[in-house]
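Rather than argue in generalities, we reproduce a single protein record, letters for residues, whole numbers for local backbone shapes, just as it appears below:
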Amino acid sequence: MQKYSEIADYKGSFKIAEIPVSDYPDFQLMMDVLLTVPANHCIAYFAVPFNDHFQFFCLMGCDEDNCVRIYSHRHNKNPLPELDSMTAQHSQFHVFELDMHEKYGIRFTDHPWLKPLRFPKGSPVEIKDYPFYSIEGEELHEVGVGPVHAGIIEPGHFRFICNGEKVLHLEIQLGYQHRGVEHLFVKKEGVLAGMVLSESIAGDTVTGHGITHATLMETLGGIKVSENLLRERMIALELERIAVHIGDTAALCTDTAFQFGQVVNEALRTVVINTTQSWCGNRFGKGLIRIGGTHYPLRTETIALIRENLRDVRKRYNQMAQKIFSMPSILNRFEGIGKVSLKQAFMMGAVGMVARSSGLNRDVRYSNPVKEIMKDEFPPVVFHKGDVWARGMVRRMEVNASCDLIIELLDSIDPAVPDTSPLQDLQLQPDMLAYSLTEGWRGEICHTAITDEGGKVIHYMVKDPSVQNWLALAIAVRNQEISDFPLCNKSFNLSYCGNDL
């Protein structure tokens, strides 16, 4: 008997009763076999409380065969399950086991570090009492940064253990603003309420999370949207990617004291987000993505504006990027700094730019494309050095790839197609598990939902790529000068609120 269910798509739904349930030792064995292959990774792993038992679901992705496979195991609620930790052998399960332990008290024996992930309300450990890792030694000292930062940066604490100026260990502790986002997806009623909530998960990924939620709800509701709408969503997603990549290039210039590069890239980012504002009235795309339709269909004048602005931005960005990536003073700060190896990226289950800058061919647009509109294979931008230079180059090359993709999609848009209004109500299929994947600018976003016998959402899980990638920043600064941390941090640009759901 096949021990999993699978769909070769970026979205899918399964009857819960039809998902095979394995014994836990069999589940562990299957994970052991799967994770001998670097192309496989854990997309999401979570527990759902039913009447008298927990059912565990694990979504495994493959960078090569387009499939998402669903594995499951089940355990009684009373007493609370105590399971052998998967993390002990496969560190990419680390954050998922922490999440389940924190939410439900499920214990994972032999877990190397069963610490709080988000400190939700009622957590037995308060964040002020968090037990930071320490190393004894007269020649060592600790440096604490945060949780309050300058400007509008979200709260998070960084605890460095240093020998002189060299970082031996960095522990990143988040969880200062747990908002109960997943609970709100279950509690709130109405199509619009859930859509607006999805836009607030991470302020710089409004389109990425909005598309993921809309696609999930349409999948559960059996709604098929037009190819025109799918193209418009992809264009919005790529505009978001271009804007943030250019903004992050400006940040890298800031931390290498290249002010000319900083101001030029900041100005170009402004052109891109103002283009989105001209389209929908909001620079970050709020209100643009709606379930089943749109209030802002692309029309001839907006299409012309996007083309004109992209042509100008792309030309000027490439001129500046050529200068940035050829200046010896900048290359001296980029090359060899903040390295994450291919093995480390695989072990932690890294996604997005972090994965691709270390040599993993991991991109939802390639592994699970929107087949209705992406007729040609989308080749990921991959580098192998895993340092600040590689992460900067991924951004540089992806700006160009996104421009190409947008132009290709604009060529296929029919501005004369009648508007499709967003749905005001939606009947979801009962007793289902559904998932949706999107390659946000940071990487793989995954939303999953479970419905009950009446079609009501009873469980919702959000996986922002930052959750899997924060560990990469901690790894990257080991054996680096502590003064390299700001530059390394900017090269990742991970989300605090994407973790603190």
In short: The mean pLDDT is 94. Residues 40 and 62 are 4 Å apart (CA to CA). The first strand starts at residue 5 and ends at 7. The chain is about 40% helix and 15% strand.
